[in-house]
Automatic annotation (TrEMBL):
The lineage of its organism: Bacteria, Pseudomonadati, Dictyoglomota, Dictyoglomia, Dictyoglomales. The keyword Lyase does not apply. Pfam families: GDT1. InterPro entries: GDT1-like (IPR001727). Keywords: Membrane, Transmembrane, Transmembrane helix. This is GDT1 family protein. The keyword Transmembrane applies. The chain crosses the membrane at residues 36-58, 70-88. Belongs to the GDT1 family. It comes from Dictyoglomus turgidum (strain DSM 6724 / Z-1310). GO terms for cellular component: membrane. GO terms for molecular function: metal ion transmembrane transporter activity. It is found in: Membrane.
Amino acid sequence: MDKIKILLSVFGVIFLAELGDKTQLAVLTLSVKTKSPFYVFLGASLALALVSFIGAYLGEALTRYIPRDTLEKIVGLIFILVGIWTIFKD
């Protein structure tokens, strides 16, 4: 796949997935509370960039040891378990 297509595809998926999620709501709340939207944006951006970096390189490293289809099933199961935990945690 062309690198620019990868970039745009990842941007679109992550952008849509992050709209209205807990991170965005936390950023909104912190911005209102601190009245420093630029620093809240900067801190959130750095945190999300670091988490994304770790995820991207960890995913690449894991595929050296775990077949891709197995890794996708494991990640899918983790998503399901987190969803179930989120429903019943209260």
